[in-house]
Design goal:
With 324 residues, chain A is an alpha/beta fold. Chain A folds into two domains: 200 residues, 3-Layer(aba) Sandwich (Rossmann fold), CATH 3.40.50; 91 residues, Rossmann fold (3-Layer(aba) Sandwich), CATH 3.40.50.1100. Chain A is built from 14 helices and ten strands. In chain A, the strands form two sheets. The first copy, chain A, has a six-stranded mixed beta sheet, sandwiched between helices. Chain A has a four-stranded parallel beta sheet with strand order 5-4-3-6, with helices on both faces. In chain A, helix 1 crosses helix 8. The longest helix of chain A has 17 residues. The N and C termini of chain A lie far apart (40 Å). At the A-B interface, helix 12 of A face helix 12 of B.
Chain lengths: 324, 324
């Protein structure tokens, strides 16, 4: 697969055509109660209802189907803490090729089960980026599988951008979109897609304060490492790649940090009011908006609820979950 | 309000016109995973996303707006363990009249809060039907409010029937509908509406085995009391009224009993797979279908997910909730 230097709107449009019928068009929910609480008009893009329960189905499906037959014939491989893993396993099964998945051994059971359900072949490793990368390299060497990074991959980034493209067709009046940032695949795709459609729109990343490498990179202009991420939002512990950082620098307006407390409160409120299941990572942009992130008064704001995969035995407000 | 002897399809059609724009048209969800597990084609009517988080908004809104100005001028009153209470408070607020709500003092906090949020005036009483009825009578005598029973009321029953009418427009191929039965308002309305639209459709009530007055009444042909209902499905502890029993005898095909364990398992699976919040009562019809209720192989089955209001601190699979 040819990886051009940067993410473009045509790549996202191609992704949309490629994944059509293979992923869901997800609904947008609104709530008078949440509007009243925030003072904004909020439009929740429910990727919680996406295939595999997360937006990651978009990027993984685009990447798998963008491979030539020659590139795809030995299958695909990745390392991922969860949602990308399940999404890649599902996309590989749709294409009829094997998927080799490297997962940290502390991955929540719900996320392990989804990979197995789609026939992904799991290899466990220590919960460090170095161990994940080394194990994945070994598997690629042994199998000849095509490596599909969870976010440092142009086709993945293009696929993630389709959510914002879809959202802006559903809610053309949006003036801002807030989405979580971990490795930056979704934020890159969102920014490129949304600004191509509507140049004046504001794009804001939301990040746990305990895993704020994107905010630090954005503020300093230099790519920063993840150091020791500490957050309940397990999907957002990764660090930006050079490729995603470049798009974020070029197209994103701000990155907001949110506290752990506001993530848990926000998640709970989304469950109580919207009546849907949202994982901690998915609640981060709502937490950013609700905790008063500046500059958004009275506006139509799109919030990407990115995923809904979590252990129901480990809810952060339950006694067992509270120890996390 | 004139209460004719029995529920008719024209009353449900009138209800639909009356509540249009005042309640939500709720979505229908499907899941390949749940179809595979059940061997059926399941269509979930998500009244979990209804106003106030439950189908009760339909009946309460119809009843409140069916009152003449004269009847409505002193407000409305009811006794209810929760969802009807919030729905009546909301409907009264829409009409600009007071709502007096009698609730048992063990009502979950989430349900109390929703009544207060809509401006309902709560009076607590002991958690027995006798205490609820006596307290409500006193309030009606003191205020002159119109009493709107949670299910023993033709306009409420007609309103509840609109969910099935809507569902059959959304999924015309349905061959059966399963819905929970507590007091029988929803089941009556569902049966009358669905059979008017499609005479051959099967209508099945689902009830906790620990609160099986409807099954006992149905089987014996004699209205049975609720005795001592014991179930986590707090919305289904009520007993049939003569009025709802008559409709159920005339139009319902079967009533299935489900175990407490299957309710909790079913509820959890709906959360995990559909990614939505469903309260225990709402999971009862899915539990009935999943636990192998006979005669439904391969069919298109509509399942009414009736509500989504519960204390997130009291989930039945959490240590604190397990003691319930």
């Amino acid at each position: 697969m040819t990886q051009t230097a940067s993410l473009t709107w045509p790549l996202i449009q191609q992704a949309r055509a490629r994944i059509e019928g293979r992923v869901s068009i997800t609904p947008v929910l609104t709530s008078a109660t949440l509007d009243e609480l925030s003072g904004l008009k909020l439009h929740f893009k429910c990727e919680t209802f996406q295939k595999c329960g997360a937006f990651k189905a978009r990027g993984a499906t685009n990447a798998v189907f963008a491979l030539s037959d020659q590139e795809a014939r030995h299958g695909v491989a990745t390392h991922s803490s969860g949602n990308h893993a399940a999404a890649l396993a599902r996309a590989a099964r749709l294409r009829g090729i094997p998927a080799y998945i490297v997962m940290p051994d502390n991955t929540p059971k719900a996320k392990r089960d989804s990979v197995s359900r789609y026939g992904g072949q799991i290899t466990y490793c220590a919960a460090t980026l170095a161990a994940r990368e080394a194990t994945a390299r070994e598997i690629v060497a042994a199998t000849g599988a095509a490596f599909i990074h969870p976010y440092d991959n142009l086709m993945v980034m293009a696929g993630q951008g389709t959510a914002a493209a879809e959202l802006l067709e559903q809610v053309p009046q949006l003036e801002a979109i807030v989405c979580p940032v971990g490795g930056g695949g979704l934020l890159s795709g969102t920014a490129v897609a949304a600004k191509a459609i509507k140049a004046a729109i504001r794009i804001i990343g939301a990040e746990p304060a305990g895993a704020d490498d994107a905010a630090r990179s954005f503020e300093s202009g230099q790519l920063q490492g993840a150091a020791h991420p500490e957050t309940i939002a397990d999907g957002l512990r990764g660090a930006l790649a050079a490729r995603t950082f470049a798009e974020i620098q070029a197209h994103v307006d701000a990155i907001a940090r949110v506290s752990e407390e506001s993530i848990v409160q926000g998640m709970r409120r989304l469950w109580e009011v919207l009546k849907i299941v949202v994982e901690p990572s998915g609640a981060v942009p709502y937490a950013a908006v609700q905790s008063g992130y500046a500059g958004l008064e009275g506006r139509h704001v799109g919030i990407v609820l990115t995923g809904a995969n979590l252990d129901l035995d480990q809810l952060p407000w339950s006694p067992r979950g509270a120890g996390r």
